[in-house]
Amino acid sequence: MRQVTALPNKIAEERGVMIPMSDGTRLAARIWRPDSEEEPVPAILEFIPYRQRDLTAQRDSTIHPYLAGHGYACARVDLRGSGDSEGVLQDEYLEQELRDAEEVLAWLAAQPWCSGTTGMMGISWGGFNALQLAARRPASLGAIVTLCSTDDRYADDVHYMGGCLLGDNLSWASTMFAYTSCPPDPAVVGERWREMWRRRLEGSGLWLDTWLRHQLRDDYWRHGSVREDLSAIEIPVMAVSGWADGYSNAVFRLMEGLSVPRLGLIGPWSHKYPHLGEPGPAIGFLQQCVRWWDRWLKGADNDVMREPMLRSWMQESVPPSTAYSERPGRWVGEPRWPSPRVYRRTHPLAQDGIADPGADVATAAASVESPLTVGQYAGKWCSYNAPPDLPYDQREDDGGSLVFDSDELTERLEILGAPVVNLEFTVDRPVAMVCVRLSDVAPDGRATRVTYGLLNLTHSGDHAEAEDLAPGRLYNVAVPMNGVAQAFPPGHRLRVSVSTSYWPLAWPPPQPVLLTVLLQGESSLVLPVRPTDSSDEVAPQPFDEPEGTPPLDTSRPVPGEQQWKVERDLVDYQSSLKVIKDLGTVYFDDIGWEVSRRAEEVYTVRGDDFTSPKGVTTWRMRFKRGDWEVETVTRTELSATPEEFHVNATLDAYEGGDRVAARTWNTVIPRDHV
């Protein structure tokens, strides 16, 4: 990223701003705005729980001063109960959070330096509540930029996928368990810091327990899912994600379902802002944001809407790797979505592989009962690219799966959108799941996963109801995979892999399942083919070089550690995946503040024992200034019997080395067809 120091406007920065809510609670904010006596400017809000004073301070310093230097007042506000904000944070996207956001927007609009018009932007949590606020239509809100977010909190978020419980549900719950245990900074809130901290320790709760009690798509998940009524959004939307991120599907749905001015952008990136994008190439995303805000918050007659509605990075074939510095490819554009250029091509699944469209398929059947180790090379549901967390060579996972290979391609194939696998099948258990994967198989046999999909086979179409499967009964399902833009070169093959487990990316069913797929024409792979003839294609304009303002000064007195280790013991047949994400110790020069973060995740299974899967996560958070030091240690363990989930968790808090708080949770939650 090119660091920009000369901007059109000088910047005034205000720290320690406290924004009053109607119930008396005050929310902590940091504001950057043009340092000028000229006319007021629009305000842009990012509203998240990740501590603007430290945890996101470096990232924020590359974004908000840049936008302020281009004529906007930018406010980075901590949610109630996070950072230096008062109150207690008890869950995601609660009604209280959304009301607070409305009040913050009204406060910003009323400031003398604000024109009365506001926007919202953010990645992940901030992208979620930007969409949610757009649907609530506060008077001042004129446009949003939502990154790595979703319109559907149940079917397409970190908790469940296709009705299957994700391993990331535990991982994310543990992250927020740790973050909600953190104290405010005494230098900001004064002597009240200890009282505020104790309220958080006692009141934030164990979110994993809540999320596990909603295993179907009910009103809990419908709240905050703007997909319930996209017509409620009446302002322009820019939706952004990456193919390595967990949230790219929402971009397609928003482009299709919204009726307002909208732009979609999907690059090769993981869960990151595109100007910091990994895998690369990163792009000049902040320049795109300035053009977007100029058009919709200032009424500038610029060319931002002359770009294709959807711009995506068409990825070229690469060998399997858990991390890439860059993904080769090119930008392609579609004038609308669904695109008139993309058509669906159906390939029957046959005993000898993936057949050509229209081929006669001899009646046959193929069965699989996948071992619990299938999925250990799947990577994370949502990649952060640190530690390396992308899927590795799929051949070992394919060994416990049904595999269907195509013939070698004789010409280049490009797909854009969501492939679908249709299955005609029977099972021998009342509760079952299926994982389908599409891989690019090179001439040397290496298999790179391109995309995948999960489906809980007991669920109805909208995941609001579940019903036992009848062993031996014939069923038909369509399993959509995540959308993708991918090119397959001549000489390569396509591979469809089907398994009945995918641990630890998804929690396995209560018992091993024998899945029998009938191969008589109904079972098929449907590809969203984008013709390689680009004679009628309007290519998107090239992006500028990524740039931002210089990050604030920090040092790292203690380096971090990263690990992603798969182990198997052939004595007791235990297999484990151990992940370490240790960010070391960061010292913030400007406030004399030291922060340490370390997370360890261990996922284990034993042989073919479907009662053995267990996930254990441990977080350590430490804050220090001079002789003042606070540390919290959180530990969460999730296991299950065929009938129940068992959650055991502990929270220990230390001040100056002395333990000052200790809490324990032991809960049992019935499994509901999961």
TrEMBL record:
Region described as Disordered: 530-559
Keywords: Hydrolase
Keyword presence, Hydrolase: yes
Ranges where the Xaa-Pro dipeptidyl-peptidase C-terminal domain occurs: 290-549
Residues that span the membrane, as ranges: none
GO molecular function: hydrolase activity
Domain of life according to the entry: Bacteria
UniProt xrefs under Pfam families: Peptidase_S15 (PF02129), PepX_C (PF08530)
Database matches in Gene3D superfamilies: alpha-amino acid ester hydrolase ( Helical cap domain), alpha/beta hydrolase, Galactose-binding domain-like
Name recorded for this polypeptide: CocE/NonD family hydrolase
Species lineage: Bacteria, Bacillati, Actinomycetota, Actinomycetes, Streptosporangiales
